[in-house]
Amino acid sequence: MEKIVILTGAGISAESGLGTFRDEGGLWAQHRIEDVATPEGFVRDPQLVHDFYNARRAQAAEAKPNPAHEALARLQREAKGEVVIVTQNVDGLHEAAGATRVLHMHGALDGALCAACDHRWGAPLTMAPDDLCPACQKATTRPDIVWFGEMPYYMDGIWQHLEEADVFAAIGTSRQVYPAAAFGQHAGRAGAHTVELNLEPSANTRDFAEARHGPASAVVPLWVEDVLSL
């Protein structure tokens, strides 16, 4: 029974209309990362941060899964072994396509978190600085998003999955930020066949035994077809 572990990044959702950090004219281009994606930025201006994530949440709510998301959901359904999806994305497009067991290492737009007591609950479409935590009643609610300088979620489990993988695929991610930048090398050292599926070679493409380059909606379904035909 083969185990396949997949890491997805912003590139897989770009064709669904959700921008990446590097897109000119998108939400990220209008803000400095340190203002909207750090704990310090939230302390300085919680209204700005909530406005930013309210806009991202509204954008994500309108987005639809593309053929790459659908192909990975198909792989989970039809593969003979286990298929684990780890995503850096905070949208819900993998789940909307039918995927299960998705580990959102950077949190999710549909989650809210209390900065005081760590209580979590489903986020409304619009959040504000004076929203009260349902558990402790403090006005300390924030998006359940992992910001720069914070520890990604599920890391102990992710490292374990990488060590158990027979195949590791990285899809639509530049892999310039650790710890995800080390996943390919870690899985390869543990014996996995590693493959990069990306629009263009990533900064760490040398860590992969195989590479397929092109739009995710084209290369991912072809790769899934090849895997399922083995």
Describe the structure.
The active site is at residue 106. One of its GO terms (cellular component) is cytoplasm. The protein is of the alpha/beta class and 230 residues long. The chain folds into 2 domains: 1-17 and 64-106 and 152-230, TPP-binding domain (Rossmann fold); 19-62 and 108-145, SIR2/SIRT2 'Small Domain'. Helix content is 34%, strand content 20%. It has helices spanning 10-14, 33-36, 39-44, 46-62, 67-78, 93-96, 155-164, 183-189, 216-229; strands spanning 3-8, 82-87, 102-104, 107-114, 120-122, 141-145, 167-171, 193-198, 210-213. The strands form 2 sheets. It has a 6-stranded parallel beta sheet, with helices on both faces. Strands 5-4-6 form a 3-stranded antiparallel beta sheet. Strand 2 (82-87), helix 6 and strand 3 form a beta-alpha-beta unit. Helix 5 (67-78) packs parallel to helix 9 (216-229) and helix 7 (155-164) crosses helix 8. The mean pLDDT is 93.
